[in-house]
Amino acid sequence: MYRGEAEKVLAGAKVGERVRIVKGERSYEGVLMPRSELGDDRHVVIKLDSGYNIGVEISGARVERLSPAEPRKQAAFPEPEFSPAKPEVTILGTGGTIASKIDYVTGAVHPSFSTAEIINAVPELADIARIKARVLFNILSENMTPKHWRRIAEEVVKELNGSAWGVVVAHGTDTMSYTGAALAFMLKNLTKPVVLVGSQRSSDRPSSDAALNLIAATRVATSDLAEVVVVMHATSSDEACAVHRATKVRKMHSSRRDAFKSINAPPIGEVREEVKLFGSYRRRSEGEVYADTRLEERVALFKAYPGVDPELLEYCVDRYRGIVLEGTGLGHVPEQLFPAIERARDEGKAVVMTTSTLYGRVDMKVYSTGRRLLNLGVIPGEDMLPEVAYVKLMHVLAVAQDEEEVRSLMLRNLAGEITPRTLPDTFY
Amino acid sequence: MLRVGFEVHQQLATRKLFCNCESELVEAEPELKIVRRLRPTQSELGEIDRAALQEYMKGRHFVYQVPEEVSCLVEMDEEPPHEVNREAVEIALQVALLLNAQPVDEIHFMRKIVIDGSNTSGFQRTAIIALDGYIETSRGKVRIPTICLEEEAARKVGEGENKTIYRLDRLGIPLIEISTSPDITSPEEAREVALKIGEVLRATGRVRRGIGTIRQDINVSIEGGARVEIKGVQELNMIPKIIEGEVARQKRLIAIAGELKRRGVGEAQLKPSPVEVSDVFSSTQSKVVRRTLSRGGVVLAVKLPGFRGLIGGARDEPRLGSELAQYARVKAGVGGIFHSDELPAYGISAEEVGAVAERLGLGESDAFVLVAEARERAEKAIEAVVERARLALRGVPEETRMAQGDGSTRYMRPLPGAARMYPETDLPPFVVTQELVERLRANLPELYEEKISRFVEQYKLSEELAAQVVRSGRAELFEELVATGAKPRLVATTLTATLRELRREGCEVERLREQSFRELFSTLAKGKLTREAVPEVLRALCSSPELSVAQAMERLGLKGFSEEEVRSLARRVIEERSEFVRERGKGAAKPLMGVLMKELRGRVEGKVVMKILQEELRRFLGS
After folding, report:
1. Mean pLDDT across the stretch A179-197?
2. Smallest Cβ distance to B110: which of A53, A106, A256?
3. Tell me: the pLDDT tens digits for B499-514?
4. Where are the beta strands (DSSP E) in B321-397?
5. CB-nearest partner of B45 from A75, A123, A255
6. Among B146, B417, B576, B607, which residue is least crowded by beta carbons within 10 Å?
7. Exactly one of A97, A115, A175, A222 is catalytic; which is it?
């Protein structure tokens, strides 16, 4: 990872080697550290014996190689023993920092995901369930694609139709709610819990939220629930986790532990020592689960805003079979977008309206703009979150026979994404 | 051979190191509280410290009070650190240059794992700023191998059964850590080093002042002893006493170890197997023991073979008994212990001592320790006492001790091992360019000694007064006031002697605002206030610092006379004595002055009155 000038000065010295850097009268001795990909090529980083790292500017420097890198030691963890009386829970890794291990030398975080590793890090899990862990893939959640959603859905079905009582999907938090919604629409006849979990503070920190979230998620995976949910910190404190319906949840903060909030509906449960579920929910039952993983990927999520260039929407109409509009207020877009919307409808494309306020329901009959859009055949997205409507439209376009069915499926509640009544305490 | 080293921690008077919050403490208990837990993380090998994990599993948790005036999501560990505070880095680099150290080319912040809850993240961010400095003392150079910039920890404000309560106001305040080599060889030199480092820090004018804003840890070791770290040293003047005390303590411990060896005492003889002797004390005169027994507690005794005469000692000498008691206090939370060297006493009778000795099968040279407490705690205390007694066989244990106000020290904990440290990946490295170093070097603040000489030269202050002004920390204010035309000597004595007097009277002079001094000297310059009244005004301002000088004067009935008022008074006096004035001419000034000053004394400066009087005389005589 050293390049340019720095690489020349290092003269073949490798990361992990003990080196002495001599610069005129000064010299620095320590272990050669890797350099961030964003760093310049003018400095070399070494770890001094005190444990501190410093960067040494290389002009006029000479590097002496003192001793080779010490071989990286790796502890072997015993296979954990589980009580056969406990229910079985599968944890599927897809990436993110929820289950990772720090390299204390470089500071890099690596996935750490064998059953033994997870139980070593969070031994409490063994008191809840017989854990079976495996990695599906390891990507940052911003790089998730519908292809990944399908793979997760298929693997979840395999587990649920096998011996697992429930499945926990460890996932990066940025796009967790998209994956959650996709699973909610794709998994049919769901009879067991599917729990997405992540962490907002990587697990190398003593203050990480990963362990508590993972423990809570595992509890939910053994509970009476048979839905796709997201389990994350309920507040900034390490006291309770909230259970959010995957089709109603959104990451509402860039960094807080309690970033995930249920929108337009209360959370469906809370986990402390036990799982408490509120209100109505789908209950655990018997039966084969299957996945309908068909998704029409030619769907766009389009945000309307003052001054928006209609050409942008024209482009979407050219290219996509469905467009979810994130309109303003009750579900409006500027007039200049009308021709593109009209063309989309003429060409038989689905156009669904949601709102950038996130909270509340679209209502397009109150103002003339809304009424004109309704007349163009725009489907009002009720109180669906824009991202959820986007995933749902992908699913609906892939399964519906005709335009009429698309419309009726989009207006019907399929997986908890539309609530018939908006309760007063769901806005804060 | 005595070896002393220092670690000085000084808070900077800037915003916090990794966010934009002010570096201020908040007295009122904040409303917002969060509860967190810190989980021991995996080591390099992926292993977890089982003991620490067990502590965690027992439900150990931390309550953080969040004062929103001075803490944000960064302190709550709910937002990544912002880029490092440039101002703090520059001050730290200045200090480094003043201490003859070599700034590093690139600053890399590290995460130092700390799971006592004092950092919400579970680690402290710390970086080396400079290497290889030194400070000159009257006895030679003392090396300063590293200078670090780090974030201050949260402030502990309470403790409960299974929790610790912290306030986040202090968390994140920039802290410079200066570590010296153990090059100091005498208690007096140690004091000098601490004083000099403190002066260098304050010379920047950018460090926080007041209790707790500077802390020095002292490392002391003697030949045959061990490295002992003493924390919480507040008063520089206590440093020699603390070091002398520590030397005496180590010498005594070495002597005890020698004697124990001579007596052939071995570790195997020291067993933490207490014997219950509650029945011996069924009708004791000791209040402590009686109270314990009446509450269902027990009295446990343990034999310390070969320790007779080695536990106690004279009051002002270091005693092993104190060490045993401090171990029992820290590890078992026990208030006190009794040992046979000091008994009979404290209401425990010779008969009771004899009975315990008999029960334990005490030999000629054996001692015993008694603990009266609830059973579980008493057992823990006995264990701690025996653990400490075993350490006595080997002399001085390495440990961290806490300085007490009287210069003595108390056991706090074993010396911490090397902390686990790894890179802070949320922060980019900070490049220290040659240009930055050169700019800082060209603008280094004056050191105290330089400033004192300049004040002597420029303001004609005596060496002593100049030194007092500089050390008062109000040198900047002094120069500002002098620049407005105030007399240097007057400003200097006001800022030093006058304030010292007031402090002696018990006034809280720290509460005075700089603005008050500006108003004070401009009021003096206008002649509306006399020098004699200055202490009175300052005294009033100490108790109500929010008042303006004019308001304070009004409250004191020192309402000054305006120039117009003085003038009309002067005219009246002249008119009333017109004949006398005509007779004496200009010579009337002096007697008339006496008349005027009867009314104006203490309220208008005499010189001002004289000037106005002379003007009015001229006018009267001229007309």
Report:
1. 98
2. A53
3. 999 989 888 888 888 8
4. 338-339, 367-373
5. A75
6. B417
7. A97
A251 annotated active-site: yes
pLDDT of residue A102: 65
CATH topology of domain B266-392: Gyrase A; domain 2 (3.30.1360)
Q: Identify all chain B residues contacting A103, using CB atoms and an 8 Å cutoff.
A: 44, 422
Residues 84-113 (B) with a CB less than 8 A from some CB of A = 102, 104-108, 110-113
Q: Does the annotation mark A276 as catalytic?
A: no
β-pairing, B3-11 vs A100-102, is unpaired
B371's CB contacts (< 8 A; 6+ apart) are B274, B299, B300, B301, B328, B334, B337, B338, B378, B381, B382, B385
Q: Which fold has domain A4-67?
A: SH3 type barrels. (2.30.30)
Q: Report how far residue B306's alpha carbon sits from residue B264's, in angstroms, rounded to the nearest whole number.
A: 8
What is the structure's pLDDT at B58?
76
Q: What share of chain A is helix, strand, coil (3-state, %, to 5)?
A: 25, 25, 50
CA distance B68 to B90: 27
Contact A227, A282 (CB under 8 A): yes
CA–CA separation, B180 and B262 (whole Å): 38
Mutate to test the interface with B, among A32, A50, A52, A202 (most CBs of B within 10 A): A52
Span A192-230, pLDDT tens digits: 999 999 999 988 889 999 999 999 999 999 999 999 999
Range(s) of chain A covered by CATH 3.40.50.40: 299-411
Helices (H), A224-305: none
Query: Which residue from A minimizes the CA distance to B145?
Result: A50
Q: Is residue A191 annotated as a catalytic residue, yes or no?
A: no
CATH topology of domain A88-291: Rossmann fold (3.40.50)
Q: CA-CA distance, B544 to B537, in Å (whole number)?
A: 11
Whether A203 and B34 lie within 8 Å, measured CB to CB: no
Residue B527, pLDDT above cutoff 80: no
Q: How many helices (H) and strands (E) does chain B have?
A: 21, 21
Q: Burial level of A24, CB count in 10 A (0-12/13-18/19+)?
A: exposed
For B277, other C-beta atoms within 10 Å of its C-beta total 20
For residue B56, give both structure tokens.
Answer: 């965690």
Using CB atoms, which residue from A55, A103, A106 is nearest to B106? Answer: A55
What type of residue is A260? F
Chain A hits for B153, Cβ within 8 Å: none
Residues of chain A with CATH 3.40.50.1170: 88-291
Helix, strand, coil shares, percent, chain B, to 5: 45, 20, 35
Identify the CATH number of the domain defined by range A299-411: 3.40.50.40
Q: Is A394 exposed, middle or buried (0-12, 13-18, 19+ CB in 10 A)?
A: buried
Active site annotation includes A419:
no
Contact status of B76 with chain A (Cβ, < 8 Å): yes
Q: Do B110 and A52 touch (CB under 8 A)?
A: yes
Question: Cis ω on the peptide bond leading into residue B344 (within 30° of 0)?
Answer: yes
How is A166-198 classified by DSSP, letter by letter?
A: EEEEE--STTHHHHHHHHHHHEES--S-EEEE-
